[in-house]
């Protein structure tokens, strides 16, 4: 006969399995914490926000006895905790915790259903998790809570209407234009400072083969929108700054950099005419921009 603990464990695993899918869920109670992480998890009821990120497997390949979640990410006050499934480590869990004042940048991006959240930490490796892009709204809520924790409060109030960004500014990049409008609808104080549209770029020293290759398979520098408020820089861009050929681009990314840190910034040639890469120390962020453009000037002004 099964013991009470065995029955309870089986029921817990069955409930977890019944809810399993590609979705990122917000965790509000102890019962919603995946069993693997329960002994290490912060109390969801007293945390600012906790989310659980499932394994990237099809439901047909899952079963009730499996640990079905790869990550539990929790924010409590000024502490960010990441618990990750790690079969080769003690208890099968890897735990990492950082203070929010050591976070130097956040990048949240999706490319179709491939979502990725990367937290860049001063003098440490990034904390990076993948997730299904269908749950971008839930991850976006967590990122907003984390940005508020880094800032030390909610977004500032707008002092006037946000600058309008028309399709002509980024043509034909409708996705970035839409992303900007969604941003300022949620955060009116996060106004546009500069923008550039995507463009074909040429190598500085092309060989004959390279010149022919770029003629038939050109390199595109992708567009971007630079926004800021008094405490934060936020850049809307594509996951990759460089795309070859004429294939459609299906990614969108937001990189935020708190302006409280003083980090060295350098400009680096890219090997393409009229394009400079701006690098923030500790690999906090990299931005490829047209040389001498308003985008470059604003980024250097804000980050310098």
Explain what this protein looks like in three dimensions.
The protein has two domains: 4-151, Pleckstrin-homology domain (PH domain)/Phosphotyrosine-binding domain (PTB) (PH-domain like, Roll); 167-303, PH-domain like (Roll). It is built from six helices and 18 strands. The protein has helices at residues 4-19, 136-151, 167-170, 174-186, 208-216, 294-303; strands at residues 25-26, 49-54, 69-76, 79-85, 93-99, 103-111, 114-121, 127-132, 191-196, 199-201, 219-221, 224-229, 232-237, 242-244, 251-258, 265-269, 275-280, 285-290. Strand 4 (79-85) and strand 5 (93-99) form a beta hairpin. The chain is globular, with a radius of gyration of 22 Å.
Topology overview:
Elements: H1 4-19, E1 25-26, E2 49-54, E3 69-76, E4 79-85, E5 93-99, E6 103-111, E7 114-121, E8 127-132, H2 136-151, H3 167-170, H4 174-186, E9 191-196, E10 199-201, H5 208-216, E11 219-221, E12 224-229, E13 232-237, E14 242-244, E15 251-258, E16 265-269, E17 275-280, E18 285-290, H6 294-303
Antiparallel strand pairs: 1-2, 2-3, 3-4, 4-5, 6-7, 6-15, 7-8, 9-12, 10-11, 11-14, 12-13, 13-15, 16-17, 17-18
């Amino acid at each position: 006969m099964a013991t009470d603990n065995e029955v309870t464990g089986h029921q817990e695993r069955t409930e977890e399995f019944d809810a399993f899918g590609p979705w990122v869920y917000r965790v509000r109670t102890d019962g919603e914490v995946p069993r693997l992480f329960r002994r290490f998890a912060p109390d969801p009821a007293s945390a600012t926000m906790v989310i659980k990120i499932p394994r990237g497997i099809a439901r047909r390949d899952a079963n009730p006895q499996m640990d079905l979640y790869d990550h539990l990410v929790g924010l409590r006050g000024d502490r960010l905790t990441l618990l990750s499934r790690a079969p080769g480590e003690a208890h099968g869990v890897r735990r990492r915790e950082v203070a929010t004042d050591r976070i130097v940048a956040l990048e949240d991006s999706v490319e179709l259903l491939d979502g990725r959240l990367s937290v860049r930490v001063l003098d440490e490796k990034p904390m990076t998790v993948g997730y299904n892009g269908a749950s971008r709204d839930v991850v976006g809520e967590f990122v907003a809570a984390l940005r508020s924790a880094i800032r030390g409060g909610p977004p500032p109030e707008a002092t006037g209407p946000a600058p309008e960004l028309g399709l002509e500014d980024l043509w034909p990049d409708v996705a970035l234009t839409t992303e900007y409008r969604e941003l300022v609808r949620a955060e009116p104080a996060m106004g546009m400072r500069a923008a550039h549209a995507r463009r074909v770029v040429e190598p500085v020293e092309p060989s004959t083969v390279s010149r022919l290759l770029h003629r038939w398979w050109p390199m595109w520098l992708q567009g971007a929108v630079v926004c800021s408020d008094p405490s934060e820089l936020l850049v809307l861009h594509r996951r990759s700054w460089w795309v070859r050929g004429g294939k459609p681009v299906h990614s969108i990314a937001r990189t935020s950099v708190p302006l409280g840190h003083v980090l060295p910034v350098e400009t680096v040639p890219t090997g393409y005419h009229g394009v400079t890469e701006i690098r923030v120390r500790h690999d906090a962020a990299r931005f490829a921009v047209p040389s001498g453009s308003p985008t470059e000037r604003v980024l250097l002004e804000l980050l310098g």
